[in-house]
Every structure is written in C-alpha cells, then in structure tokens.
Amino acid sequence: MTAARIAAHFGRAAADYDHHAQVQLAAARTLLSLLPEQAAGIGVDLGAATGPVAERLQRQCPRLRWLALDLSLPMLEEGRQRGRFDAAFTPLCADARALPLAAGSVQLLYSSFALQWCPQLPALLAELRRVLAPDGLLALCVPVAGSLAELQQAWAAVDDDVHVNPLPSRDDWAAAAAAGGWAPEHWHQAQVREFYPSVAAVGQRQRATGAHYVPGRARAGLLPPSRYRAMVAAYEQQRQPQGLPLTWELLYTVLTPC
Q: How wide is the angle at C-alpha 151 spanned by C-alphas 146 and 154, nearest 5°?
C-alpha cells in the first residue's frame, strides 16, 4: 500500500472521523493511561489524525513539546480548524516510515490505531528507534490479527478475495521488537466488541474511519448485488441480541530501546 493511497483514503474520512472513531478514541485514551512521567523534550503523536487527544497528551506530558504527525493533510487541517493545534502542538504531514526528524531527537513516540498500516515491522521499528532518544520510549496501540473476524467470516462464505486488511499478529510485533532491540515495559492484548444494527451500519463505520481500504484486492470495482446479498446473509447468521458483532483485538505496549 503506497503512502499516497493511504493518505488519500484517510483524507476523505477527515470531516466525519471524530464522530465515528469510537473504538479508536477509546484505545487512545487507554494508551494514555499507560504513559509514565516524561522528561522535557519532544513528543510525537504518530498518526495523530485530527488530534482528538492532543489536549490530553499536553495535560499528561506538559514538559514535552508536541508534533502531531500524520500522513493525511486533510486530517491535520481538520484538527487545525477544530483548534487542536498551536505552537505547543504543531502539525506535521509526514510518513512514519521515513520521519523528517534527527536521530535521537524524540523523548516520546505515542501512536494509537495508526501503525497497523505499516506492514514491514522491522523497517518501521528501526526508523522509530532511530529518532528516539536513548532514554525515550514508544507507546503503541495497534489492532492485530483476529480483528474484524466476523466480517472476514461473512466474506469467506462468498469468495476467496481479500476484503479485510490483513494485520500482523501479537507474535509478529513481539518478534520484530525483540529483533530490533526493544525492551517491553508493558505488553497486553485486549478485545473490544461492538454491535451494529445492520451490515450497512458496519460498512458506514468502516468508511467513516478510513478502515475499509484493503490493498491487493483481486477484484476491483463495485460488487455484484448477488455477492453482497450473500455476504449480508452470512453475516446475519452471527447476529446476537445486541446486534451484529464486530470484534477488535488490540495490542497495547510500551517499549524502550535497549
């Protein structure tokens, strides 16, 4: 998946992102609770989107000067219009895989629900380690393999195409971190399950948060109505009293370079 495609895809979701990103925002707040006290320096919110936790990051880490880094300029512009960025929390449009930052210049890298779009974990973690100070830390939340299992199962009843973005597993992240010279200060996986009234509502939430884009799909364009109806019928078989389930598997970790 190219950086330009990711940026364009999430840019289209900017205006409605905050309203629909309930799981993403809850995960970001949970990750905030794991942050220890920080020394003075630079903090970077990697994948900041519209900056919904900018104020909380400043309150929790007041000694840091913050960069809100995102690949999508429309996301950052939306955050600016909402008054979330200023001289103390500066927006920066850039790719987390090639950070325009000096080596050892960052005290805290904070990232929630963003780095799952970077499948080459060793290269990603090497770049993050490059910019981090020797006594700095990386606080990370990412969805991992097993997320959106209900949606995957429904599509599997229809065809063998890829309809849900494949995600690295918890073990993949652990192996990449160990190989890259990272030591875990915190490490746990949590499950979050949402319920929706319809398959259409599931799709709306995915589109509104930019999460429905899938690289490498064998079939492009609109689905034939018969295949979509078959997927809906398969998903409906999973309905529970609360509605149609959609599960996220979330990995929370705080890493330090060793």
A: 120
User: What's the rounded Cα separation, in Å, for the pair 64 and 59?
Assistant: 10
CA angle 65, 66, 72 (to 5 degrees): 160
Question: Which bin fits 206, alpha (ψ -120 to 50), beta or left (φ > 0)?
Answer: alpha
Q: Which domains does the chain have, with CATH numbers?
A: 3-148+165-194+248-257 (3.40.50.150)
pLDDT digits (tens, 9 = 90+) for 21-48: 889 999 999 999 999 988 889 999 999 9
Whole-model pTM: value is: 0.90
Query: What per-residue confidence (pLDDT) applies to 119?
Result: 81
**Degrees, nearest 5: CA angle 70-252-79:** 25
CB of 246 within 8 A of CB of 151? yes
Calpha distance 183→178 (Å, rounded): 7
Tell me which H or E stretch contains 118: none
